[in-house]
Fold these 4 entries.
Entry 1:
Amino acid sequence: MITYNSAVITDDCSGAVQLAAAAVRRDIESTCLETDKKGVDIALLQDSGVKKECFRISVHNENEVKRLMIGASDDFGAIYGLFYVSKIFLGVKEFWFWNEQNFAKKEGYPVPEDFTYESRPFKVKYRGWFINDEVLFDGWIRDKDPEMPWRMAFEALLRCGGNMTIPGTDFNAHKYKKLAGDYGLYITHHHAEPMGARMFARAYPELEASYDKYPELFKGLWEEAIEDQKGLKVIWNIGFRGQGDRPFWIDDPAYDTPESRGKLMSDLMLVQYNMIRKKDPEAVCCMNLYGEIMELYRDGYMDIPKDVIKIWADNGFGKMVSRRQNNHNPRVYALPDQKDDGAGANGIYYHASFYDLQAAAMMTMLPNSPEFVASELSQVFEKGADDFWIINCSNVKPHTYYLQLISRIWKGETDSGNIEAFTHGYCDDYYGFEYCSEISELYKKWPEYAISYGQHEDDHAGEQFPNHGARILACAFIAGFDRKDPEYTDKTPELNWLIEADTLRQQVVWLLAKYEEGARGYKEYLEKCLAVKEFIESDGAAHIAEQLENNLIIQVKYMYYSYLGAYHICRALLKCLDPDSKDANGESFIGAMEETGEGRTIDYLSAFYEAGLARKAFYEGYQDMRAHEHGIWENFYENDCEADIRQSYHVAESLMSYLRVLGDGPHFYKWQRHFQQGAGGDKVHLILRIKAHLTDLEVWELMDEANKKY
């Protein structure tokens, strides 16, 4: 039996192994009742006969002292072996922390006396997470330990069999690389920060970021990065991008042809490569074929040293084609043409989470199906891109389902043919066997409700689609509304990637249909989720119902409120952009009209009311999200600043104010008189006011109350 008294013996082991052993000791204390019963000890054994990163487990009995022995030839093998013991015997799963796994303590956990197990090598050589756009980690501190989110992320990565990380974005990558090294992980780098060097614009903010003008300063930053990472296990990412995650020629327009751009990048990669190899002849280097670089490489403008790992990237939605950047979406195939051992090593940068200000998912799960993901990754294996997988995991918690799927694929345990079994097993792991069938059905529905916005199989929308889309429409309307000829108000070019249109009205009409579909669909999905939650609660399993709420239902709610708010933004705008439409005037309950140049009228009051409904939906979504911050998750969602449903309700408020200016200004008494009791009414026009001005929200609340009476 493994009991509370079982020791984890790690004599002469490295600090990284000691951290894993301490985690397993914590697992024992979390799953075992305190007892007098002696338990079998868990001990590590150096075994040169075990393959690299693998482990062998067996029960040893010497002088009637039994030990569960983990044999390994390196640190990773020992770490993976320790976490395997915890998972198999104690039931502590990979995402126990992130999914709030519940432990019912027992006196002990039996270990068969003839137990043996030997792990297999991984299908991917270097595999790990890019903790990117980790905005939810900011301000979320547990036990006054700012490193806690990072410790839990690195531990979960190791439990998943990872061995590599980009430990954060920008400042965080520099701040937490040593901590990642303490956990034994390889360090690699963001494609916007080659070699992990400081950005030129940060180091020399007063200078133009031009390599031609300041080559020695750039080289100095690269030398500094090499020195700064001494003592860490590094996979050196080489390359050259602009100051931030964008092409360098935006900062240096002298490079105005593909030839000149490709040549500079190729030359500088060779400089970096030689600098690294001078310090360490055995160093491993990689480079990203990402965005614009993919096009340069495919068109033959890039020369890459042969032993540098080429990292091919998906488009942010799981499809192995180049990403859309603003309105440019070439969808260049992003895998090597064929497996060729003589062509050098290949890997991938793959997104379980993505941020694009258009349609991506960061606060919620990838909107494409696990079957789709597994199929794409099977093609990655077919093309031989199995040397390096870096997975964008963002803030970890919203993405555990897909992160566990991908880790099972890099272990060789799951493929596109057994996704249903994977989903059932995932729900069994975190919710228990009794309810896993009902809950797995809910997880399977996640991609079914994702809105399709384009012609490609991966064109499914995350939460940024309703939030950024609605804000783009509202801002374009406020900035450019043509009051005399509203239906010909200019379109916003920011939506050219989505729809070909001549006017803002056409863009709003198209998006209204999508947002209405989303609001209706996610409402239906939410009702199904809440019915399962209610069933589980009525069955006396409140803790499992709470897990379901915190892991899945919160995401469905985020999507529902986002689409509902975006739908009402569109309705508000249409009441102004298309005055004669049935949708615009069909539900007006007060005549607060303005004539257009053609004698038509615009009902600003009804538009104001719709904008208030949008504000209400976004606000309720934000409040619901923050209501999930309990216990260890206090302040976790406070810095939702990328999809940012909070900003959506602020923009809706701005739209309300703009519409009130148009329809009720400059004196702001007509609407108030109509709705506020004792304000004078709208039949008698007094020279003096008799009530103080109401805020936009106060006016809207009176309208809402009145509207509910009819």
Entry 2:
Amino acid sequence: MTRGFLSDVLAKWKRFRWQGLVKVWAVFMAIALVLLVESLGVHYGATRFDITYLDRAKAIPAANAIAGQKATNLLVVDSSQEGVSDAEAMLDQILLDMKVPTTTVDVADENAEFPALNHYSTIVVAMPNLDRLGEHVLQIMQWVKKGGGVIFAMTPEKTGYLDVIGPQIGIESSTYEYVATEGITPSEDFMLGGGGQTYTFSDPFKSSLSVALNDRAQVEAVSSNGRTPLVWRNAVESGTAVMCNIGIYGKVFRGFYASAFSLLGSATAYPVINSAAFYLDDFPSPVPSGNGKYIKRDYNMSISEFYSHVWWPDLVRLAERYGIRFTGVMIENYGDDTKDDPVRQTDNTQFEYYGGLLLRQNGEIGYHGYNHQPLVLPNTHYGKEYAYVQWPNRKAIVASLQELIAFQKDVLPAATSSVYVPPSNILSQEARKIIGEDVPQIRAIASTYMPSDSSLPYIQEFGVAADGVVEAPRIVSGGMVGDTYMRLAAVSELNMHYVSTHFMHPDDLLDEDRGAKEGWETYRKGLEDYLDWLEQSAPSIRMQTGTECAAAVQRFSGLTVSMETTDTSWDLKLGNLTDQGWLMFRASNGTPGNVRGGSLTKLTGNLYLLKATSATVHIERKTGGAA
């Protein structure tokens, strides 16, 4: 009976004269259904992470990882000299992150005993006036001749001892004059991002000594005008001397000093993060109604139309072109209610739509806030800097974060979130402690890396905190159009940690201070220029979400490395290696051959990226004598 019915229907369909129109109608209905599904954000799943968090117990702060190891490096300072405290603070963090066990001696301390140099393989001298070292300067140079490596990390003063050792460290002649260094141009073989590119200094001053070098000195970086050598090295019989003549010791220069230190010895290996993460702050969030002045000027669209028809499609194209996986951090509302009974957002449409599109790109949703009020208690004072409202107590802070977490799970049930970005990068120490103790869903905090003129921002280092929360700061932001400071920071961190973390806001185009007047086309082209630079400078860097970047920071934080060198090999021993570790490897004397326990990718010159899969890594040394 069923077969007969179907045959009858089929016969009538064949005689139906409008069947072509029905087919067209069916196609349109199918398209409409697809669009409806897309608009509802139904067709996304959970983010597929390529790397996930270690257990909190296995995530080790860098200081704990290196504690107790035998010092291989001697840091010599003179705290009585001007500028030494800044240089020492910078060098301490560099050596910690490079996992170089270090002993520090301060020659200003009359009770300090100068240690025997044969206990160390490298020495860092951080003082401008070398006469304060006296005969120890000559002892150091004799030690270098026997195979040691010394770096003079501070711009020297012209003194008697500098003149004595000058020829050994590559100086033909020097004057008493200092010159203003407006930028630095690293050689292509020395640093990622080199190759003739110049990175401009924000506030140049007369920081570099006027010197002329001898023919044996190998210059690795010069001033932007090409006249002043800023980093060079010189062979001293069996050893190496490196001189840094930059004369500025801020956080933004760490990568240059780390690269200079890596020139010592036949080879140097140090852990890195290997991650590029891109954040969209305030996304998803309630979309502002009405028009933006410059959006209306350029596109004749409302803010909502601009986001959906221009801004987001452009970001999707950038993501596809460069392999980016955006991490959006959610704001539930823009109110200023800081009581301990937060009210649920009732309009879920924008959150479901934009959140679904982000997850569809295999991006990630993180946390930004129940509202845009930074997590601070009444003892934090904004003064005239911000018009934000403080939270009354611990309970209110926790309640706001729990509401955000619950709201996100309600509107985007497939999202798996772990990263918190503080509004305006502001987070008080009390609130930071509260997060670590009371909000276990937050595994990482991504605030800001570079120091600020204000005391309010939460400034971070890359690593694992004592409470197990990962510190994974953002380095650069926005379109970076004409911002030379951020480009300097970007190249420095590419060489220090092999990392790039960037953030932008959907409402940047509503704020003249963030690029609104220049317009989205200029902003987008500035971002593309940065992405082109990053792709050219570090083509092998991993494009990751915030969670993946934080997981990479965990592995970097605990990883330690020691190396034994022979005529034919470099043998690395890695501590606290879990599934994989990443290291910069510079082969200054010899060429890497076959590798066991990992793999090498050439980055530039004699600089390689080492992926370690075993706690012992054997690298064949094909040419060059013993170190």
Entry 3:
Amino acid sequence: MTALGGVEMGALAARTRALAVLRVRSRALAVALLPAAAAVILLVGGSTGHLVGGGWDVLRWVVSVLALLVLLAAAGVALVVARAEPAMTPTVTVPEESAPELYRMVRDLADRLDVPAPSAIALTPDCDSWLEDRTHPLHGPPPVDRDDDGLPGLGDPARRRSAVAAPVLVIGSPFLWWMRVGELRAVLAPVVAGTGPSAHPDIAAARRFIRGLDAAVAVASAGRRDPLSRAACAGLGWVSRLLLRSCRRHATEMERGVAAAAAERAQAVDYGLRIVAQEQVGLAYAGWDRLLTRVALPAWRMGRWPSRLDVGVVAALTELSRRDRLAEGFASRLGERPACDLLEEPGVVDEAVSLLAARLFHGGPAETRPDWSPVGWEDYPEEVVDRSWRTDAARLHRVLDTLGVRRTGAGTAPGTDGPTLARVLDHLTTPDPDPASALAPPTVTDADADPAPGTHSASGTTPTGAQAPHADHATPHPAYADHDAPANDSDDLAGPVARRGAPDASGDVQAPHGDHAAPHPPYGDHAAPPPPRADHHGTPADDEDDDDLAGTTARGAALAAGLSAQLAREEARERPVGAGLPSSPPGPGAGTGPDAALWDDRALPLLPLQPPRTGREILTAHITAMVCCAAMDTVGAAPGLDWLDGPALLLDGARTADLAPSVLSLVETGDPGPLRAWMTELGIRPEKPVRLV
């Protein structure tokens, strides 16, 4: 779009749409006042002797009562819209004294763009950057006089630009650690340019109205117990949704105009560098996602949270650059000054962001405690990888005890009853006595569900399948009792926190809602929150679980069902690791600003990383853990950390070949041949007992 008289066309379009939103508000007010106006006319007509008679008297009373009820309802809705707290993204505030150079860079960028500087800077554990308005209407600045007949634009004097408090600049923490200073400035240019439209009184008023309606819908959706409150919430929700539907198209076009105006204004600042920097944005997305899902998630499940996630993303992206021939030039950038140097204490900020990431993506507690402690990268292999493998292997043998599987496997020395890999292999490869049982694994009775360690089931036969036991009564073997059950994920309650903007061909971030100044989900989404999904380790839906285990053997299906049930029970004991705790600043270095509270702890994790694991995946992971334990205890293998793939098994300092196909062959077909060949090649002895936690 081209400029008209120094004003971007996008800004003019945004203001036009903002006025349309405000007209919806005015019409709603007019509708609320219409019965009152009719009552005034009837009352005045009666007092002047024009509208007299019994019929007019009845009509006067009816209309007056109706007008009073409508005014009370409208006042209640307006009060809720004005006072309801809008949704706010959880972030870590960066005070100016802890990052003076970063603030100086952002203000210099705002001066070059001729827009107001952001009021504050905050970090989010995500690969995105946006503007967020955190000024509650009750604490907004006083109104200023302005000429409604003119067309004030983004380049007006500072008096007009400062009529509305500038929003907060939220920066993705991976950008600070991976990008260089110049690249970060180029990427932030179109974001900072959005403070200009945010300062326009009409656009700011329209956004406040939209956020208030969205917050009112959230209040109405919360519901109440007593009938009167439920009726009031139903009415509030209906009115708020109706107004949101009326404003939705205008609000969307307004945000598009704001984004277009910001992108156009930012073209004059570091345009060429911004195109190059967008390549780093895409790389950061890939590395950050792999770091969270492959590296951080296993630690969170063990009750540990990596305290240097942003340092880890640099290592992961460097490794990705080394492996990918298309990214060979990226590693040479590491000689330039990283953007995290703009922080006075990057380590403290990284720790705070890492704790917040664990809270958002996993649902962990808001502070360190005995069952939720930080872990450094140097301790990750021993504290997370080794412990998680041995914990999973212990759970596998405990479920085998529950199923009544004998402890001695083929080739095991007499008198040996310790946990061995041979026991697992023999159980999964023993032919099924009844092939038809694979279609529907039989249930386990109370007498068979929890046999004593080292004994068979009450019937004297080894069961071929089982449903989830009713209770966890099994007494684990002392040698491998799982005393340190990991803290598993809490319920997956999907809830969008921040919309992501996708870079266009020119390198500008074009988001569906412009500069992200409005932190709420798409308008009206609070009215119908997504249903909670099954937890990461919990039992999935019956039909999905049956489909997943349909191709496995009967014993594999029974073992998977037992492991899923055991994980569900452990999670029930541990859950919720973070729910019910009061909101508090995310960690050291967090400010005391508005992001220290005002977000709901009951809906954690807000951004779940992965869907629930299926029974097949759970069984595969446990068998893999048992194989790794056998390798560590018999051939001297060691746990390791791969920055892109997570836990790794190291032999003589080198990563072993992938054993996933061999394990899948055992799980799906009951064929141990590929896995035995893999172990024979490395010298792993499955008949030797292994050490478990």
Entry 4:
Amino acid sequence: MPFQPSTTIKRVLNDIQKKELVLPAIQREFVWDASQIEMLFDSIMRGYPIGQFLSWKVKPDTSRLFKFYDFMRNFHEWDSPHNEQLDLPTQSVVAVLDGQQRLTALNIGLRGSFADRTPGKWVGKSSSYPVRRLFLNALAELQQDERGREFDFRMLTEKQAVAASRTSDCQLIPVSEVFDIEMMKVHELLINHGLGNDAAAGRRVYELHRAVHTEQSITFYQEESQEIERVLDIFVRVNSQGAVLSHSDLLLSIATAQWETRDARKEINALIDRLNRIGAGFNFRRDLILKAGLVLAGITDFSFKVQNFNAENMDRLEAEWDGISASLALATDLLYDFGLSSQTLPAASVLIPVAYYVHTRQLSESYRASNVDRGDRSLLKSWVLRSQISGGIWGAGLDTLLRDLRSAIDGASGGGYPVAEIEKRMAARNKSLIMNDEEIDDLLSLAYGHQRTFAALAILFPHVNTRNVHHVDHVYPRALLARPRLKKAGLTDHEIELIQQRTNMLANLELLEGPENIGKSDVDPATWLRSRYSPEHVGTHMELHKLPTLPVDVRDFNDFFEQRSKLLRDHIKDVLGSHINLPAN
């Protein structure tokens, strides 16, 4: 990895301007905020090292495998948050592997602008994203700055800069003006800003000019190997201290280069945005969606290796992308119908087999509400929810599990979701959905707010229509079990501690529709039920939710909790203690 001669910020930004220094598609997009840009310029002015940079000399035969992007110059969070793709002829290029955020910050500060949303302002409204530029206060340095800065760099709108410069200790100079001039013109710049006779201000501006134009502060190590796996490994290692990266982020660049009629990066990012906005919102990530694409396209080996992203596989993925996207969207709709969201879905990988089933059967939107498919939906929902509450299903050995699930779905002869064959294969992989006593204890210990709690309640109480918004509700309201109330009721310290431990546990939880839960408020359960249902319907509700005699006084809560724990334990054994519809061997 040859060491390159150190160079100046000015020269590097000129290379960026001439498109001689570019970004490979493996790079994530610009994520720094204004304060980080200000801090970087303070470091430069103080002579602090700003880190080394890593580049890759890409030869023509390798460059055709990739697409390249320009550095961000005028960042706008709403209108232009993405890097522009470059139309470069097949040639040798120098691509930045490490240092994109710092170089982009320099490019924005010295040549461009920055526009992010003002906190509290509306998303998507132009006035919420004021365009700002970087200024240096030449008149004064910072005193006791909480971030440890010395030089007063500010990212401001023109209007803000004019207003700030009206004060006696502030004269703001656009940093871009320092970038655009030679050393001999600095004094003229100072005169134009009324600072020609201010020696201290002059020193600051000259120092900024020197740091940008003269100081050899940029050092590149340049990788010249054309072995893609080696380059990807280097990229992951040098970026491991920053945002979490996976090989999917890197291999996406190869997919982007291989697709002929679409931009894979745009298509996949747009699909992720679309899926994550369904229902109450999900948090699917690029690695999951990219792997799902490989699985649904029928590619035999869908592990994240360069050889699996060859032209043949990528051609197939591109050709089938519309159908794959539709299947993933319908699968996400189904997860939403099952009551799941980013808050209640512990293992997002379940999306892949659901989408593969949708894709294989060529299901349409009508499947979600069809009476003919009601039984099949019920089996699918049950399997999905049970897989979410059992530990260790979606962790280690994911690719092997997905391969088994795909094979089981391919081999299904009845046309429905092959839950029996799937569970048999899962059990053979030590991923059984049957719960033993230890796992039942673990389930009963689930607490309010835990991701698995909603799925546990939904599978235990299938009468709940999860297509309606449901809340996890405390049977006996938390407000009535607050420590001061318990103290006032005369309970002992031991009894109070026990109640505090049990308040948020599964045996004091149920699922109620949103409006119903809001209406329940902080009324004790016995009183609430009598006010809402007739006497015969009170009994029906209690049976459906496995509720024992309801306490009307906090002193009865511990007895209630122990009785419902027993009811739930027996119910869990009935529901989760055996396979569903498994044929005898």
